[in-house]
Design goal:
single chain; Ribosomal Protein S5, domain 2; 2 domains; four-stranded antiparallel beta sheet; 13 helices; 41% helix; binds alpha-D-galactopyranose
């Protein structure tokens, strides 16, 4: 997929809508280096924004309507601002409808025309859905002079994705908006904080497609939400066993520092239903299932112990990985990526044979380490390697699953072009 330039999207917009756009936004994809499935437990992550992105051009449109077309996603949209969901006819329209729902109060009335293009693969793992949501919100923010600041874009993008039914934890939106070129972004959620972590010059990053699409808004959604609920059950049960009053929804960050947490995790049930947990830990059922409630039978038993074990250990690995990068210890960084992948495979169970194969192939080709990136269940893997090994790592990944695999560079976040 060739990278569209700001000029090419302006020209395409003019050809399509007969006038120039008033704004063009670049919204990058993201690759999470480590800290997988920790964000919705309030525990840290260490992602980068990448040099693959969506470009979103916007201009005025017919009163009360939003017309949108895309070179990156199938199917044109014409959504009524009062009832955006009624006009949804393709998967990406749901993110547009979510963004419209979230910006309407700040900018009532006017219409817009939107064109989306880009070189960010949409198969899952590189956060094309969050790039789309953040980029749409920022483009409309400017087109409609809504006056939202960057923090507001992040918060509204998170809620917009919840309208699509994904209880996303916030990592993707934060890094897509706030990343700085050449650095990873260490994000803490409790209390909220961000700091840039410079990437050593001897570190190259390769991503490789598993051949299995796993967009989190559709096929991966239920598996993802089930784990979010499992993590909440674990948090509620652990808090109950040490007599802690826990927030809504319960998050493992609230018990991560309890000194006997490892022992307590071993005592958690393998599987438990939200109903049993609500009863057992004395928390309201609604706190455990939140938005998933209407698509989730609360009597379904979900994994608990293994999820908690992964999440708590992964949070420690984020600290260790940040320290390894700061010390330029790329062998240690690579080992942590491998440990993360093993934990995601064995305990969290969101890997697939294709992702395992691709990681093994990239390690064998000389990578310091490799792991699945993003929600898993398919999508992409990431490898850390020396610049001199990039070609061999790409070739090995493509031989393992048919690819594509390519090098990514840490880029800046959301920008106006
Ligand atoms: C998806 C979600 C993120 C995060 C990852 C897993 O990408 O959108 O919030 O939970 O999965 O780390």
């Amino acid at each position: 997929m060739p990278t569209p330039s700001p000029d090419s999207i302006r020209t395409a917009f003019r050809l399509r809508f007969g006038e120039d756009p008033t704004v063009v936004v670049r919204a990058p994809g993201r690759v999470n280096l480590i800290g997988e499935h920790t964000d919705y437990s309030g525990l840290p992550v260490l992602p980068i924004a990448i040099d693959r992105a969506l470009l979103i051009a916007a201009g005025p449109g017919p009163e009360g309507m939003v017309e949108a077309a895309s070179g990156a996603f199938e199917g044109d949209a014409a959504l009524d601002r009062q009832h955006p969901n009624a006009g949804v006819s393709a998967p990406w329209h749901r993110y547009l409808a979510g963004a419209l729902t979230e910006i309407t109060a700040a900018a009532p009335g006017t219409g817009a025309r939107i064109l989306v293009d880009g070189d960010l693969p949409g198969e899952g793992g590189l956060s094309s859905s969050s790039a789309l949501t953040c980029g749409l919100l920022e483009a409309l923010n400017h087109a409609w002079a809504a006056g939202l600041d960057r923090e507001a874009i992040v918060q509204r993008a998170i809620v917009a994705e919840r309208h699509v039914g994904v209880e996303t934890g916030g990592m993707d939106q934060e890094v897509i908006v706030f990343a700085e070129a050449g650095t990873a972004l260490r994000i803490d959620f409790d209390p909220p904080a961000r700091r840039a972590v410079p990437l050593p010059p001897g570190l190259a990053l390769v991503v490789a497609y598993s051949g299995e699409a796993a967009p989190k808004g559709t096929s991966a959604r239920d598996s993802y939400n089930e784990r979010v609920v499992g993590a909440r059950i674990a948090a509620a049960m652990l808090a109950d066993s040490v007599g802690l009053d826990i927030g809504a929804p319960p998050r493992l960050c609230e018990v991560a520092d309890v000194d006997v947490v490892d022992i307590l995790v071993d005592e958690l049930p393998e599987r438990m239903s939200p109903q049993e947990a609500a009863h057992g830990a004395g928390v309201e059922l609604e706190r455990l299932v939140q938005l998933t409630a209407d698509r989730f039978d609360t009597r379904t038993k979900v994994p608990v112990k293994r999820l908690a074990r992964h999440i708590l250990a992964e949070a420690v690995r984020v600290d260790e990985a940040e320290a390894a990068l700061r010390a330029n210890d790329l062998a240690a960084f690579g080992r942590l990526l491998n440990e993360s992948h093993n934990s995601l495979r064995e305990d969290f169970r969101c890997s697939t044979p294709a992702l395992d194969r691709i990681c093994a192939a990239m390690r064998k080709a000389g990578a310091f380490g490799a792991r699945l990136t993003g929600a898993g269940f398919g999508g992409f893997a990431v490898a850390a390697c020396a610049p001199a090994s990039v070609a061999a790592v790409i070739a090995a990944a493509e031989a393992a699953t048919g690819g594509p695999a390519f090098e990514v560079r840490a880029s800046g976040g959301l920008s106006l072009l």
